Amino acid sequence: MAQNQVKIFDSTLRDGAQGQGISFSLEDKIKIVKALDDMQIDYIEAGNPGSNPKDMEFFKRLKDVELKTAKVVAFGSTRKPNINAEDDKNLKDLLSSGADTIVIFGKAWDFQVTDIIKTSLDENIEMIKDTIKYLCKKKKEVIFDAEHFYDGYKENKDYAIATLKAAEEAGAQVVVLCDTNGGTLPQEIYDITKVVKGQITIELGIHGHDDMGMAVANSIMAVEAGSRQVQGTFIGIGERCGNANLSAIIPILKLKLGYEILNNNELVNLTKSARYIAEICNITLTDQIPFVGSSSFAHKGGMHIDAVTKAPKSYEHIEPELVGNKRRFLVSEVSGKSTILQEIKKIFPNISKDDISVQKITDRLKELEYEGYQFEGAEGTVELVIRKIIGKYKPFFKLNHFKIIGEQPYGSEDFSSTAVINITVDGQNEMTAAEGEGPVNALDKAIRKALEVFYPELKQARLVDYKVRVLDSENATEAKVRVLIESTDGIENWSTVGVSRDVIQASWIALVDSIEYKLIKDIEKKVKAYF
Amino acid sequence: MAQNQVKIFDSTLRDGAQGQGISFSLEDKIKIVKALDDMQIDYIEAGNPGSNPKDMEFFKRLKDVELKTAKVVAFGSTRKPNINAEDDKNLKDLLSSGADTIVIFGKAWDFQVTDIIKTSLDENIEMIKDTIKYLCKKKKEVIFDAEHFYDGYKENKDYAIATLKAAEEAGAQVVVLCDTNGGTLPQEIYDITKVVKGQITIELGIHGHDDMGMAVANSIMAVEAGSRQVQGTFIGIGERCGNANLSAIIPILKLKLGYEILNNNELVNLTKSARYIAEICNITLTDQIPFVGSSSFAHKGGMHIDAVTKAPKSYEHIEPELVGNKRRFLVSEVSGKSTILQEIKKIFPNISKDDISVQKITDRLKELEYEGYQFEGAEGTVELVIRKIIGKYKPFFKLNHFKIIGEQPYGSEDFSSTAVINITVDGQNEMTAAEGEGPVNALDKAIRKALEVFYPELKQARLVDYKVRVLDSENATEAKVRVLIESTDGIENWSTVGVSRDVIQASWIALVDSIEYKLIKDIEKKVKAYF
Lengths: 531, 531
Fold this sequence. Notes:
homodimer; alpha/beta; TIM Barrel; H-NS DNA Binding Protein; Double Stranded RNA Binding Domain; 8-stranded parallel barrel; 3-stranded antiparallel sheet; 16 strands; EC 2.3.3.21 (chains A, B); branched-chain amino acid biosynthesis (chains A, B); LeuA/HCS_post-cat (chains A, B); Aldolase_TIM (chains A, B); isoleucine biosynthesis (chains A, B)
């Protein structure tokens, strides 16, 4: 392999599945494999067929899935102590998985051999050798994961190295040094990897965990010391604090260190892929996640926004577009007219900065902020404020009245919430009611039910996130509340916000914005399709 | 300063406030300052008095807050180009903030001088010198934040160093090398810091950002190269991808590298403090966050659980108790009992650890946690759970029913909430109603009104804080909510918690606990006074 190439190895489906709350269906797994293959990930670890019948089923199913470049990998342990490799059930399962590449993990820390698997140090070496020899004879590419390598090296250097040499001799193509507990410091990773590099001739890899928040740095340090395979999970999921986050490691290796991985087209899909995989994992990526988060290139301070407008490199270490992300200016009290002008231009590109509406919109947003609104991540409401002032808005319905009833006890239930609503659209009246989990859920159901009579396209839209923030909470239940709603139609997401002394009214304001925003976007699409 | 001491500098209230969605009330800020002081954080950067009138107000308020050891710091920039330091409004504001320690940030990257603040390289050096000299003359301790230092060093080494020398000459006590854009690699941080260490005699600091997910590692590398101040935010909030996460840096410095920071007692409070600060910031700490997350020491794989049971160091790089966190097994719930025993002993000092109630209480609390309860900062509810199981509890009233009515429009008002309640105390029935700002406020008023007939001492009690947290917010308005209530009678404060799919019911649960807790405490006081 060329010196400037690094292979990327994803374990979302194996080590990632050990993360809290992660559970994949067979279809989820197929989707993730395809997404990783689209990203040109070199190795995809698909499961442990010997320990999990579902994984075995998945390997069978995978035989029918055509991949562009990725190699599917099966994971399993060295043979059991004191038996022949041929007789080990786990190894049989690895072979019948059909995977051409096998990861074998084995103990590299003497304490783990004697105290956990309770066998002799010599037998453990034999287990590594036998297992790998056997798989090589069966024409498999073998990667040896030296579990707890760094911890083992620190306690018994010679033994840890001996396990690697056993794997090398037996025919493994790569030995991967694992920081299984995530407790090794970056400098230690560098120094130890460097020593190993001098003693092992086959390729080295790194497998890091994030227990100290340093798995990305540790992976980079290992590469700088000579590792040429990086194992991790695409969005960092995994047991405890997770595995090394590949969506950070990939752009660092490529953009900062110039290694040959993927190609430019794939890097541009990084953000989209990370969000797609998060969706399948049913987890919310934190806004702050490096490179691919919604805040990764979001600027709030007025001075920063000003400087980034002059020269992006002022407060951006790379161009967001390189990883398919985008710059955002958070509309907040600290930011001024120039930020707001950028927002207006997204909707009305030809507006001049001296247009009287710009000042009016700025004043209105400030007034709302003073009342407790916060427009960061509430672009839907910002667009509606802009449209209302510029005059490119008309209401989609008129509320006549609504009523919420909460009762405890309620029949056999503890508690119940019901909403009754009465609206008018184009002179036509619609009255309906719905029960829900809480007053806001009931109101959400009722208004949708009423509006879908007139706007059936609303059926595609639903709420995905609902946040309540009590403002000045020292006033306790009399305090103002801010409600932030995120909605989706399956393609686009949008957020809206409402503030009131009453949580129901605040929710209502945000709900109405959410619905109107969706209806405006649908009209825009129709107009675009027509012209 | 001793060679093995590192000072911890927290910027939650300044740089942290630049994070998306972060907005602090004055009371929030006071709470955070106190929590940081309790943790023995050395420096607390409280705001930028020159750029924000709210920050100035906060500094005035801080004068009345007594701190144990922390120094409060005001942040501002070097004087404007071509004026005298005496005439600079920002410097005047810094002085009138009353803070004894001032952070001055200045440009260390030539490009930022010429292209962003648009002055000459020489004038920038003068700005640094004048500003620091002026503040030193006013007897302030000055820390110089060399903004973009690492980027600047890479493009113009001599100029970057010259800015540090200017600060040193002018009397600064510390120069902090900032990786403002978060784009510097760990090895670069180490090498550059090492060079600077050889040229500057005053103390060095590091200020990292997490744009590549390496701010923790970068901070550690800087310390290993000689930095003795680490700037960050306690839970890593901040602009874009956030600042260096102190809740990871602190235990690494202390437990892995043996630096003298905080003391053992404070480290034990790390998890509790991080969660408390997150609560005030109204953000949800990810389960995966190092050291202090709910999953940081959570094991899922059967093999791992087995090994950890044999020897925790098998899959834990430190003992979770060292940072006040705990081990969790995600499949079968175990442990926690000894912590709970401590809680029980607070109320019933003579209980034996083998008492059957201890197991029952442990089971009940775990069950509630599984439902979404969180007992950190909800001691009132914990006491009631304990009392109910031990049998030292009897209800103070019986709820017959309540009804909440919300109406929009309502007479001349936009919206109104009304609560009707019917209770029985000692066979005597009381029915009443109240209007409020929102359904929960109405319910709070109604239940108090009804109960005060029987328990006039409740008149002294009132709510001081009311927080709503949406759990599993992906289920939007159908999600579970957790309501945390803080109450006071003017002498003591207590907190209670309720969880339900319905915000009104969750609030009701927490309200009832709050009222019953108060009534129990009043009885206890009467008993004590009598005997």
